[in-house]
Write a structure and sequence with these properties.
Elements (H helix, E strand, L loop, with lengths): L5 H6 L27 H12 L2 H13 L10 H17 L5 H11 L3 H17 L3 H11 L6 H17 L3 H11 L7 H14 L3 H11 L9 H11 L3 H13 L7 H14 L3 H14 L5 H13 L3 H9 L7 H16 L3 H12 L5 H17 L3 H14 L6 H14 L3 H8 L7 H21 L2 H13 L4 H17 L3 H13 L4 H7 L5 H14 L3 H14 L3 H16 L3 H14 L3 H16 L3 H12 L8 H14 L4
Helix pairs in contact: 2-3, 2-4, 3-4, 4-5, 4-6, 5-6, 6-7, 7-8, 8-9, 9-10, 10-11, 11-12, 12-13, 12-14, 13-14, 14-15, 15-16, 16-17, 16-18, 17-18, 18-19, 19-20, 20-21, 21-22, 23-24, 24-25, 24-26, 25-26, 26-27, 26-28, 27-29, 29-30, 29-31, 30-31, 31-32, 31-33, 32-33, 33-34, 34-35
């Protein structure tokens, strides 16, 4: 785990209010001969000491501008003293032009004490006004020779803080290291920043030591405990990190880094393979962060994957589809497996194809090439399948999938996967041999499916008919009949749809092989087609029987739909009790909007049976569903009609 470090330390420093403004420093008088006639200078010194800086400016300027201030008897040190009081007092009052005045004085005075102290004053002025880069050279040039201990401590902290904020961490760290050991105004802040710098450079032991000193202080207690918990993780004490994180998460007062604490807890639990527990902390972090790193997103998706929550795993793994590294390759491999487990072969094919295009994990690439090739073949993408199988045999000539791949590739070469070209070639040959007839049957069927996919239904119908003329392979005969039935239904030729679907059912020998050729060509779908065709012809008793057989023929969501359609057929036959039982069955087994459709239909039945109160209750169930049901408007309308029938206008 690579939890966020310096990138958000600097970004979130706005949370940590500058712990204290630079204190007004005690004035260290630079001695000069006392002059009774220099009353203005004496007054300026007194006003400065008392903090009356504007008055001090006036008094200093009065001294400097008076004739007395320019007599030979006036020492240059007194002039420097007056000029110093004026320059520093102007900085204290933030008077326009104060910076220029200070800089001119620094350049003009020969007195090193005044030069250095003015540099410090100007540096602190920049520091207070957050012009930290400008403050640094002044702090550096001023030195500490003319400062008292209190001023030295302040200057070191301020300079360290400036270095920190302009990312000169190598210069900031030794200053903070000194400050953190000296009791004073900046002791706590020194430990905080020293902890951050040690944390950043991986010196976790010293970082932990600094943070522990200030963890319970009011100004740090919402920030520092998170770092401490994380440092336990970095130093290898995962159990301590987890216990600290959980303790902080549960406390009433939330930390500033509460979201990151959830991530830390999730990471620790993930490493313990406690996926169910880890997931709730990952979910909290995901919901409350603007950005999530790819590593955490992968771990969250992996938790869903291990808990068989494939839809949620898919949602997270998909977000890693553009990640070009070993993590991205593994994510795409698992994404493909999730799609397979949910029956979405096309999406699984795409995911495995992305995985197969990466070389970070050769074992995964080898397996993904085989899976992508097989799925491409099963779903009708034969050209793509050929590409994957060629790549597999070229990159891994001794692959464990070698025999399977060569078998599949031979089949692909026979079909060429260019059905149109294959069909045109077959038109010119005799179909006297069993192999020729079988090939023609397969190619005509494949070409027909391509035409169907492209929207040319008439051409597809013609080719399927030709495929049925050469029934060499029962499986191809069956699937051709199936699609003839589907097309006939689309063309509203309902008798033909029923006839072809029946032909399909009569020639089922190897269901697994038939599904391999066309995943949609199933008994269940055929019975569904027949049932729908019967409904269109208002043959409700026959429709009901075929929908019953559709339920018996398969499972999954289609079973729910078949049950609904059987219920609808019973409804139309006025078999209300039977219809109600079927609608109840759907309500019991379905977690989708199909259940609300069943509730809506059942409510109408209840109305027909004069069970008005039960009808209203069922309609309100749809209306109050969360999330909102797509049948909510219908339920509201039906409820309104019910009230009208009861004269409850």
């Amino acid at each position: 785990m690579k939890l966020q470090k310096l990138s958000f330390i600097i970004r979130r420093l706005t949370f940590v209010v500058l712990l204290m403004s630079p204190a007004t420093h005690l004035y260290a008088q630079v001695h000069a001969p006392f002059q009774h006639r220099a009353q203005s200078l004496i007054l300026a010194e007194e006003q400065y000491r008392e903090g009356h800086y504007r008055l001090a400016v006036q008094s200093a300027e009065r001294f400097l501008q008076s004739p007395e201030g320019h007599t030979p008897a006036v020492l240059s040190s007194e002039i420097d003293k007056a000029a110093w009081h004026r320059a520093v007092s102007l900085l204290k009052t933030n008077t326009p032009g104060c910076e220029d005045t200070a800089r001119r004085f620094i350049r003009s005075t020969a007195n090193p004490a005044y030069k250095q102290r003015t540099s410090i004053a100007l540096a602190r002025y920049y520091f207070v006004h957050n012009r930290l880069a400008e403050a640094i050279p002044l702090y550096e040039s001023a030195g500490i020779a003319n400062l008292n201990n209190h001023e030295i401590a302040d200057a070191k902290f301020e300079l360290a803080y400036c270095y920190f904020n302009v990312r000169q961490f190598d210069k900031a760290e030794p200053l903070f290291a000194t400050i953190r050991e000296v009791q004073g105004a900046y002791y706590n802040a020194g430990n905080y920043y020293h902890g951050l710098l040690s944390y950043n450079k991986g010196d976790y032991k010293n970082a932990l030591n600094s943070f522990k000193r200030i963890a319970r202080l009011p100004e740090y207690k919402t920030v520092v405990p998170y770092y401490i918990a994380e440092l336990y993780y970095f130093t290898g004490d995962r159990d301590k990190a987890l216990s600290e994180a959980l303790k902080l998460i549960k406390q009433p007062e939330k930390l500033y880094y509460d979201n990151e604490l959830h991530l830390l807890a999730a990471q620790c639990l993930f490493e313990q393979e406690a996926y169910s527990e880890a997931l709730k902390y990952f979910e909290h972090y995901y919901e409350h962060t603007d950005r999530i790193r790819k590593e955490e997103l992968y771990e969250m998706a992996f938790c869903y994957y291990r808990l068989n929550e494939y839809a949620k795993a898919i949602d997270k793994f998909k977000q890693l589809s553009n990640t070009q590294d070993a993590l991205g390759q593994t994510a795409m491999y698992l994404l493909g497996d999730c799609y397979l487990k949910t029956g979405d072969k096309n999406s699984a094919r795409n995911a495995f194809a992305i995985c197969a295009g990466m070389e970070f994990n050769p074992g995964q690439q080898e397996a993904a090439l085989m899976l992508a090739g097989k799925l491409a073949h099963e779903t009708g993408y034969h050209d793509e399948a050929a590409v994957h199988i060629r790549a597999l045999l070229g990159l891994y000539p001794n692959s464990s999938y070698k025999a399977e791949a060569k078998t599949l590739f031979a089949n692909l070469l026979a079909k060429t996967n260019n059905y149109e070209a294959a069909y045109r070639n077959l038109e010119d040959i005799d179909l006297n041999t069993a192999q020729a007839r079988q090939t023609y049957q397969k190619v005509a069927y494949g070409y027909a499916i391509q035409q169907l996919q492209s929207g040319d239904i008439q051409q597809a119908l013609l080719l399927l008919g030709k495929s049925l003329q050469y029934p060499a392979d029962d499986a191809y005969r069956a699937v051709a009949a199936f699609w003839m039935g589907e097309i006939a239904y689309r063309m509203q030729q309902y008798d033909s749809a029923i006839a072809y679907a029946s032909l399909f059912l009569d020639h089922i020998r190897d269901e697994r092989r038939i599904i391999h050729l066309s995943p949609l060509a199933t008994r269940q779908n055929a019975y569904m087609t027949m049932g729908y065709a019967a409904l269109k012809q208002e043959q409700f008793d026959q429709a009901q029987a075929w929908f019953q057989q559709a339920q018996a023929a398969g499972g999954g969501s289609m079973t729910v739909i078949a049950t609904l359609r059987e219920a609808d057929a019973a409804f139309m036959r006025r078999q209300f009790v039977q219809a109600a039982v079927l609608y109840d069955k759907v309500i019991a087994i379905s977690k989708t909007s199909d259940a609300d459709y069943a509730r809506l239909q059942k409510s109408i039945l209840l109305g027909l049976q004069n069970k008005t109160a039960e009808k209203r209750d069922l309609l309100r169930t749809i209306i109050n569903a969360e999330p909102a049901s797509p049948y909510q408007p219908d339920a509201r309308y039906e409820l309104a009609l019910t009230f009208l029938e009861e004269n409850k206008h």
